[in-house]
Amino acid sequence: MNDVIELLKAHRSIRKFSDQKIPHTLLLELIRAGQAAATSSHVQAYTVIHVVDPAKREKIAELAGGQGYVATSSDFLVFCADMKRPTDASERTGANVERGMTEQLLVATVDVALMAQNVAIAAESEGLGICYIGGIRNNPQAISELLALPEHVYPVFGMCLGYPDHSPEVKPRLPVEAILKQDVYSDDGEQVAAFDAAMRDYYQGRGSNNKTTDWSHNLTPLFDSKLRPHMRDFLIARGFKMK
């Protein structure tokens, strides 16, 4: 395989960073690489907040569930789905803009996810490590207030970036046969069972944080209770009415 494919397959989440700082010129190039991602109808429905204030980063680490690397990584970015900029631009042309559509929420969320993944790949190509921080959705209203986010903008996730200070193993993924279907959807119980066995071996044999579990059991906290039930009301209050 070529170097790009090998880089993609080598992704790990990095949670320990050295004191070395990312040059600002490099950070700007990473953002430009992010902007080159595919975007629905060229809407570019995203804004990235580069959080440099140490006090704000400490607060975000707390709000995200005590994830200290938010504060200790070289740089921390909050990726926001932004329908304010494109709808404001359209309105300035004289259009009768209809805000709050469900499709607008989907477009902005997909756009910012694609953009962030480009940033992640670009960062890893430069020897940096990254870690997505979905925990900012634990307290999205507090994060929004902290970052002065206006209506029609919401924080989707954060990203820690820095030079790695550890080298965790690459976590296995589901077999391609489980997720690649031909023509129609089909059951994949056998592949999942095999993957659970592979994950048990991975968790028991990795270099740190060993545990006895598997993929299916790790999903339990996500689905045996209502996960972040505040998100719907939060999004509606942000202007994403899901009409």
UniProtKB/TrEMBL annotation:
Entry keyword Disulfide bond: no
Keyword Hydrolase: no
Domain of life of the native organism: Bacteria
Keywords: Flavoprotein, FMN, NADP, Oxidoreductase
Ranges for domain Nitroreductase: 9-163
InterPro entries in the record: Flavin_OxRdtase_Frp, Nitroreductase, Nitroreductase-like
Family per similarity comment: Belongs to the flavin oxidoreductase frp family.
PANTHER family: OXYGEN-INSENSITIVE NADPH NITROREDUCTASE
Protein's recorded name: Oxygen-insensitive NADPH nitroreductase
Organism, as annotated: Halomonas dongshanensis
